[in-house]
Amino acid sequence: MSELNDKAVTRRQVVAGAVGATALLALGAGVRGAKGSGELIRPPGSVGEDEFLARCIRCDRCRSVCHLNVISVAGFSDGLIHVRTPFLDFHLGHCDFCQDCARVCPTHAIEMFDPKTVKVGVAELTERCIALRTGACRLCYDECEYKAITLDARNRPVIHADKCNGCGLCVKVCPANVLQSFKDGSQRGVVIHPIHKEAQK
Domains of the chain: which residue ranges? Predict the structure, then answer.
């Protein structure tokens, strides 16, 4: 009898453990869903991410004044806490650091900045880069206004992080992917990785 009880307890423990594990996985998925699957590149002059989310009232003023149309707003796929907040979408345009978005922000989620020193990100080539495979493309090199891209002996682009401010023009002109989307494995030949404001201090 005792042996049967021991087996019953063991089975109950196994079932309870499985239920608990399932609950934890569901909770983890919920947290990931709330935060989204990746980092968004905020407009230049944006305060730190936590403070940005607290200050931003989703008024859409920054997007409405962006003359290069690079500012977009996050959707549900970017995470619930990010919905309707502005970010830079370099498939739509690039940033020339004009400060118009900072001028119209009513809560100072985006603050005035020095266009000569501000950085929102750093470019990085991906395996989709045509030039890395064939040396037959130099659009990013030709278009970079900050001389952050040079060519090596095989005509392949080299990105110099110290000169790159993440303006996104290289992404905009990259012809490597006709789907024009960062998501679901459809990247172009170059991407911009965000630089957190805290890391620049």
Answer: 1-35, 49-200
